[in-house]
Amino acid sequence: MVKAKLSTSPAASAVAAAPPKGQGIRDHLGLIAEMTREFSAANDYKTVAHSALERITKYVGAEAASLFLVSDEGDALVCTACYGPVDITGLNIPATTGVVGRSVTSREGVMVRDVSQDADFGGVVDAKTGFTTRSLLVAPLSVGRECLGAIEIINRIGGDGLFEEEDLVLLETLARAAALAMNNFRLTQQIVQQERNRHELELAAEIQRDLLPQPSSRDFPIHGINIPARSVSGDFFDIMTLPDGRIWFNVGDVSGKGMNAALLMAKTSSLFRCLAKSAEDPGQLLNAINNELCETNSHGMFVTMLGGLFHPGSGSLRLTNAGHEPPLHFDLRTERFTAIPADAPPLGIAPGIAGPDGFPVTEIDLEGGSLYVFTDGLTEATTFGGGMLGIDGVRALIREHAEESPDLRLKSIAGAVKLPGQSLRDDLTLLVVEDMALSRTQNLISPDTNVAMDEERVLRIRVPGRADRLKLVRNATEQAARFYTTNESWIFDLKMAVDEACQNVVRHAYGGRDDAGDIVVDFIRQNDAMTAHIMDFADPVDPTKIKPRDLSEVRPGGLGVHLIKSVTDEANFEPPPPGVGNLFKLTKRLPTKVN
Amino acid sequence: MSYEVREENGASIVSLTGDVDLQTSPQVRQKLLETLEKSRSVVVDLSAVNYIDSSGVASLVEAFQVSRKKNAAFSLASVSSAAMRVLSLARLDKVFTIHPSVEAALAAQA
């Protein structure tokens, strides 16, 4: 489109007087240096292009000039800057037409000493603006093989108004210098933009790292590690403990790498965290995530995921594998591995893809061993020797580091493929679920009970969870209570409450089996109250199933909870410490002393 | 825990001694139900019971229910303070017939 500002002022008055003939090389160099300086200091391409055009026009001694640049698509020439009485900025002509097109196509300067003699001169602009073009020079803006566009100058000032051969040589020289300066400006801008992108990517990576869980404490049963191949990662893992002590975890891998994979990762991991809070089962959870992802996902991206729910008390796991690398169950006693293959497609491909029953669930018992979940970034990583690690390599590394603590072990395994200073080919994520049962039977685990400043630990006992040990618990309770009071009825009530709570563990949590597990009771004096923490290592108990009975109904059973509630100030299930199945906490205020 | 059953004036007296808890209550339950099969008048002497838990109380409740079905006389006698504490917390002190002594119970059930 022609955006012409018509000017009626005499063309000659708008330009400086023609320079004296026979300018020296020193003057040329001075002009080139000035243009280069201007470009390097500028941040607006068009302003600088205009200024360069003006300098060149004045220097050569012409009435008007236009700067044409090749469009981004390469099929057109766009007038970017004008100098002189007529402004045709924005004029867009096909890349191969006209005198300018000829120069750009041939990469050579063109002189039309007398336009009336040249067939290529269209005269379109003249017709629209009233300007009379008599003579013109065009020089390409070439940098190496690339041509940025061309400079066109019109009507020599002075003499017969026609250009000479030496004017073309001068314009070509200046155009080459201008092209170089413009190209430098363009590259600098690109570097600035890249730097800006890099900074934004760093911010994205930081936010993404925040989506991963904090490192687990050493005695926590689940640990994970994530090493991105680029600054942002398409891999993720998460660990989330429910109030009842069960732990959700996942490892996922988004198809592709880079920013789009990272965004889908962020979405998927948020969905997991949000939906897991109300999910009962990993099959149901992954089905829900799949349907949510399919509602908005496009571009053929998908996510493989291993999702699981772990009962730390029993060491049992429920797993759903949606197209993910099969995790490995490692039995520490036999040193044997079992792979748990994927039996469902990846997430995000189609809603309801797993069929009417949702995603299938595999239940396994860790039996004192560990479960390793990882992404193909581990199996496909290059080892120090140069080959691919492979599943056998993963097994060998797990065996090699089996004796290390879980957090250290994950670092050792990842360290075998991630060499310092080198980046990985693919994101690497590795997660381990440890069954504490083995250490439990060896009595190595000692549950943590936080004791605050105003608290005093009185006694801890640990007995097998059997009916014939309850008398021991009662005797211990009595002795612990006698430490603070001689009030016999208070002592009796506390003894009864602890006994009833332990009885529930034996009957409900351990189901009356003799060798089911231990009971640990911590007696803590807190200010003016005594607290008993009754801990077991069974599966979490549903507290709603153990409720006080209706006393108007005379029948055997269901009385224990009523007795406990009657004689204590507080009695509740609380989130258990790591490795513990259930924690039942009861508090009874010490009797007021009667003097 | 130990127990003793004796006959007096046509009634069976079951005396319990020690702790009636999750471990021992199944035996107490069994002994009480056995006694109720043979006798139409049963007195449970709780004077020597140091401790009774909810499972022990449940055994007493079950025996009480059986006695009602069979129209047999069933009472508790000389209830120790420990046992009384649990019975009253369970609000069963008004359900059972409780006598201050075995003699009083025998007199009432004669």
Brief digest:
The complex is a heterodimer of chains A (595) and B (110). By secondary structure, chain A is an alpha+beta fold.
Protein architecture, described:
The complex is a heterodimer of chains A (595) and B (110). With 595 residues, chain A is an alpha+beta fold. Chain A is 34% helix and 24% strand. In chain A, the strands form four sheets. A six-stranded antiparallel sheet of chain A has the order 3-2-1-6-5-4. Chain A has a five-stranded antiparallel sheet with strand order 7-16-15-12-13. In chain A, strands 8-9-10-11-14 form a five-stranded antiparallel sheet, covered by helices on one side. In chain A, helix 7 packs across helix 8 and helix 14 (488-509) packs antiparallel against helix 15. Chain A is elongated and about 130 Å long. Mean pLDDT of chain A is 82; it is low at 1-20, 438-445 and 551-556. Chains A and B meet through helix 13, helix 14 and helix 15 of A and helix 2 and helix 3 of B.
Strand order of the largest sheet of chain B: 1-2-3-4-5
Radius of gyration of chain A (Å)? 41 Å
β-strand amount of chain A? 15-25%
Instruction: Tell me the CATH architecture of chain B.
Output: 2-Layer Sandwich
Total separate domains of chain B: 1
- Distance, first to last CA of chain A: 106 Å
Beta-strand residue percentage of chain B = 25-35%
Topology overview:
The complex is a heterodimer of chains A (595) and B (110).
Chain A: H1 11-14, H2 25-41, H3 45-60, E1 62-70, E2 76-83, E3 92-94, H4 98-106, E4 110-112, H5 124-129, E5 136-143, E6 146-156, H6 165-211, E7 222-227, E8 235-241, E9 247-254, H7 259-276, H8 282-296, E10 303-311, E11 316-322, E12 328-331, E13 336-339, E14 362-365, E15 370-374, H9 376-379, H10 390-400, H11 406-415, E16 428-434, H12 437-441, E17 455-464, H13 470-482, H14 488-509, E18 518-526, E19 529-536, H15 560-567, E20 570-574, E21 582-589
Antiparallel strand pairs in A: 1-2, 1-6, 2-3, 4-5, 5-6, 7-16, 8-9, 9-10, 10-11, 11-14, 12-13, 12-15, 15-16, 17-18, 18-19, 19-21, 20-21
Chain B: E1 2-8, E2 11-20, H1 25-38, E3 41-52, H2 54-70, E4 73-77, H3 81-89, E5 98-99, H4 102-109
Parallel strand pairs in B: 2-3, 3-4, 4-5
Antiparallel strand pairs in B: 1-2
